[in-house]
Amino acid sequence: MTCYIRPRIPGATVFFTVALAERGASVLIDEIDALRHAVRLTRSERPFGIDAWVVLPDHMHCVWTLPEGDADYSTRWSVIKARFSRAVPPGLRRASHRARRERGVWQRRFWEHHIRDDTDLAAHVRYCWNNPVKHGFVARPTDWPHSSIHRDLREGRVDAEYAEGAGGGALGRAIVCGGCA
After folding, report:
1. pLDDT, tens digit, 9 for 90 and up, residues 122-159
2. CA 97/CA 41 separation, integer angstroms
3. Domain-located, residue 5
4. What is the count of structural domains for the chain?
5. CA 79, CA 178: separation in Å to the nearest integer?
C-alpha cells in the first residue's frame, strides 16, 4: 500500500472532494442544515476561508484558504465529518466501521489539491460551480441551491453572463475578483 503524505503548507488554498461512503445516497442535501451547522461550528473553532463550495447528494467539492501559519485542514475535515455523522442516522456499517467506532457515513479519506496560482484557483472554483450541471441535476450553475455561486453573485464576484449561462462561453471571465471569504 502506498504511504501518501499530505502536503503541509501553512496558509495554503486547497481544493477538496469529500464523499459519502454510500455513493448514490442523498444524505448531504437531505441533511444540509446539519452539514452547515458542522461547518459553522468548526470554522468558529478553527477558522478558514471558503473560496467556493458545492454540496451534491453524495459528495461535495470546496476550496478553502487556511489562515497564515496554519496547515491543518485534516483536523478540520475530521471534526466536520464527526459532527455531521453524529447528527444523522448511521450508514451501513461494516466490521471495520464497528472496530474503529465509525458511523459509516463518510468515505474515510478525502481528495485534496493545493492551488498553485490564480488560474488554478479560478478553474477549481468554476469546477465547484459547474459540478451540479456536469452531473445533470440542473441546466445552469445558479439553478443549484447548495452552491457558493449565490454568495459570489450577491458580492459581485461572478460575471453575470457566466452565472446565467450554462457555464460554457464565459468561463474565463467567471471570477471578476479574488479574495473570497
Report:
1. 999 999 999 999 999 999 999 999 999 999 999 988 87
2. 25
3. no
4. 1
5. 28
* Mean pLDDT lowest among 41-45, 70-74, 161-165, 176-180: 176-180
Residue 4 has pLDDT above 80, yes or no: no
Residue 8 lies inside a defined structural domain of this protein:
no
Q: Could you list the residue range(s) of the whole structural domain that residue 157 is in?
A: 13-173
Looking up cell 503524505, which residue turns up?
Answer: 5
Q: CA–CA distance from 169 to each of 79, 115, 173, 178 (Å)?
A: 39, 23, 9, 20
Cβ count near 61 (within 10 Å): 23
Query: Of 61, 50, 72, 70, which Cα lies nearest the Cα of 28?
Result: 61
In a domain, 127, yes or no: yes
User: Would you say the C-alpha torsion 46, 31, 90, 63 has a positive or negative sign?
Assistant: negative
**Which residues, in sequence order, are bridge partners of residue 16?**
62, 112
Q: Retrieve residue 85's grid coordinates.
A: 455523522
Whole-model pTM? 0.85
* Mean pLDDT of all residues belonging to the chain: 85
Q: Which amino acid is at 129?
A: W
- Domain with residue 146: its CATH number is 3.30.70.1290
